[in-house]
Amino acid sequence: MDFVIDSPPPELRQLYHASMVDRMKDKVDKSVFWSKLVGIVMQQGQKDMVNFFDLLLSPASKVLNNWFEGEVLKATLATDAVIGTMAGVNTPGSGYVLLHHIMGETGGQRGVWAYVQGGMGSVSSAISKAALEAGVQIVTNAEVSQIMVDETTGKVQGVGLADGTELHSSVVLSNATPYKTFVDLVPANILPEEFLCAIKTADYSSATTKINVAVDRLPQFNCCKGINPEGGPEHMGTIHIGSESMEEIDLAYKEATGGVSSTRPVIEMTIPSVLDKTISPPGQHVINLFVQYTPYKLSEGSWQDSTVRKSFAERCFSLIDDYAPGFSSSVIGYDMLTPPDLEREFGLTGGNIFHGAMGLDSLFLMRPAKGWSDYRTPVKGLYLCGSGAHPGGGVMGAPGRNAASVVLDDLKTR
To answer: Sorted alphabetically, which PANTHER family does this protein's record hold (predicted)?
Structure first.
């Protein structure tokens, strides 16, 4: 699996603009990829490969029912199959989403998550530090309003900023969503109609809301004996609230498909300040709530209505009270990001944290669109390097690294 994730897909597109030598090299590279993949498949054996494809194609409910008996355990694992998606545990292909979330590693340990000291912004800071040391110039607070393209040659020319500044370059990498990149930033009438249609009709739906909460004390859970005001093991991992069976998760999903935010939300809680004392004042804590399901467009009301927002946040806090009495009274303040907020604040089309659905029809050679999975785009010199490209979302950097390797290869042949 690592090999597939860490490699640019062997795109089937014909390189009409390339020289004969480049085309021969391209064919050799594709042959090497498929030969290596076939070798890996042969090593696994037929039974293991059938089980693997069963995992990819099946709904998460089938996979979990095959392996586990306890309803609470199955529901806890099932949240990884639906997190960030507008899908349910019975949705075909949700088994892959489950695999996608648990196949990562931290510190050499498979399936393990970790907190970043100083918050997730520390990851960006570390990347920027390395870039600056390598001589990169970084410009912030510089909104890109357009990707400039020569209409005659179809080649990228750089980017235009919202303040009118033009930055010229023969290579542009976009970490924005495919929709933002090709529909909002690339000028009209530049892209092939078939490609543009695929980008526009891709699934960007989301049912995820993020609530960042400041509290004056740690929640104390009914299921844990004793009180740990300084934090115990129960505060250090992912805490699952409200989903005690897969049926409950499925019901919450079905409500959202009708435009109704879940009556009993599915909540994943983390408390990073238990381990990282740099992100909160002494005696106080930061709690992150990853909540589903909240449809982008409500059948009644609007997320712009402060009353609707407050009502849903209090619904989540009240649910947590059932497991940790007094949680609501510990809340000092909170910031809530619904799907429309995620779209507006971070440019995530539809509020989808993966830059597009992670269904089987949107992966590998199909991501972001059939014929354009190798980070190159119909605009020569423009590359896609974010989660909307293979292998999709997650804190792993694989799309960016793979895209960078493709760019470097292309620069060598110019």
So the answer is: PHYTOENE DEHYDROGENASE, PYRIDINE NUCLEOTIDE-DISULFIDE OXIDOREDUCTASE DOMAIN-CONTAINING PROTEIN 2
